[in-house]
Design the sequence.
């Protein structure tokens, strides 16, 4: 994509850089549980710091604006400044030493962030000389710090955004055979992705609750399983030979957990994962592929059904095949395996990854390009 990057920046010493990151990480009892997104942001942060910029990190945490970034600031060992944007805050930032880094409190504590209020963007712009966006995973949001702030300052993309765009774009012209594995729950958020890649991928394996929705459309009994109730035209899925569905599934009934053929589920049963036969089929498909794109877990890992997803992750990681994986739930299911570095690329985006793959761009990227 055609936008300036931080590599284009020259003399940064003493410049006040507003760095938009996505540090929305899981926290429990004031401790960061998973710092994948933080680590993904470090190359850009260190580059600006080493260049002598005065770096002001802008981020959010949580959805409601009630949470604090204090645990993240503590994790990074940097000062956390209040969200109140006034002359006192401007003076404090101006008086930073070259190479210093501070963090502004959760942007969503001010409702104008989510409302994309231009006055809020102007107040933020008053704190800096340059804007850098490295928050790929929130760049699908039309929020003030993502789409309005770039209109007001010279703006550049960070290293993470560059990497995300480069790697995800490679899925539009991939090596073949190309296997696309799609899991998760809400079909309405992924149907456009299936429409786009049905003409690109050689095979699309659909698991998770997405498969339940297709099973129901095919006339299978799905019991009390989670399905997407929104009315959608799925005929293009039902009649396409590229679409591969699980042949067996893991279900729960009154007696416990059992694996059975996908077309033999009973009315009181709940499909919560794929079965062992389907996993073996996936393993064989992986061995025949040259490129793999994976988004979404195969089972309900929050209820303990994550062994199939973990085994899939190990198969892909050990295959040596070029692979791109991503999605918040996917990473949550496999982050504890210690194998993230074995994939060719791990996307930091959830919804942003899906939107970019479906549309080839994001509002935040367009804002960088058009600034």
Sequence:
């Amino acid at each position: 994509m055609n936008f300036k990057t931080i590599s284009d920046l020259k003399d940064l010493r003493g410049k006040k850089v507003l760095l938009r990151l996505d540090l929305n990480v899981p926290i429990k009892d004031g401790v960061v549980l998973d710092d994948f997104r933080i680590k993904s942001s470090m190359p850009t942060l260190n580059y600006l710091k080493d260049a002598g910029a005065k770096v002001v990190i802008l981020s959010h945490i949580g959805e409601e604006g009630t949470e604090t970034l204090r645990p993240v600031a503590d994790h990074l060992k940097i000062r956390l400044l209040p969200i109140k944007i006034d002359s006192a805050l401007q003076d404090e930032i101006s008086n930073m030493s070259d190479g210093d880094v501070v963090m502004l409190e959760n942007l969503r504590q001010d409702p104008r962030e989510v409302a994309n209020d231009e006055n809020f963007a102007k107040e933020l712009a008053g704190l800096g000389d340059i804007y850098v966006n490295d928050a790929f995973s929130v760049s699908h949001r039309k929020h003030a710090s993502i789409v309005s702030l770039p209109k007001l300052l010279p703006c550049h993309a960070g290293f993470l955004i560059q990497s995300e765009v480069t790697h995800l774009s490679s899925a539009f012209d991939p090596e073949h055979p190309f296997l696309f594995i799609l899991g998760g729950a809400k079909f309405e958020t992924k149907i456009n992705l299936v429409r786009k890649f049905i003409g690109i991928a050689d095979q699309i394996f659909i698991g998770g609750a997405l498969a339940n929705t297709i099973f129901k459309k095919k006339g299978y009994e799905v019991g009390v399983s989670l399905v997407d109730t929104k009315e959608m035209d799925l005929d293009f899925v039902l009649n396409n030979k590229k679409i591969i569905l699980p042949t067996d599934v893991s279900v729960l009934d009154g007696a416990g957990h059992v694996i059975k053929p996908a077309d033999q589920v009973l009315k009181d049963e709940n499909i919560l994962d794929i079965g062992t036969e389907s996993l073996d089929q996936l393993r064989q498909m992986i061995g025949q592929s040259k490129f793999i794109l994976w988004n979404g877990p195969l089972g309900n890992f929050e209820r303990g059904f994550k062994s199939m997803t973990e085994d899939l992750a190990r198969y892909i990681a050990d295959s040596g095949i070029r692979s791109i994986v991503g999605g918040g739930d996917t990473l949550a299911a496999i982050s504890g395996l210690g194998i993230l570095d074995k994939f060719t690329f791990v996307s930091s985006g959830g919804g942003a990854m899906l939107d970019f793959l479906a549309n080839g761009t994001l509002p935040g990227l367009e804002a960088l390009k058009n600034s």
In short: Residues 102 and 164 are 25 Å apart (CA to CA). The mean pLDDT is 94.
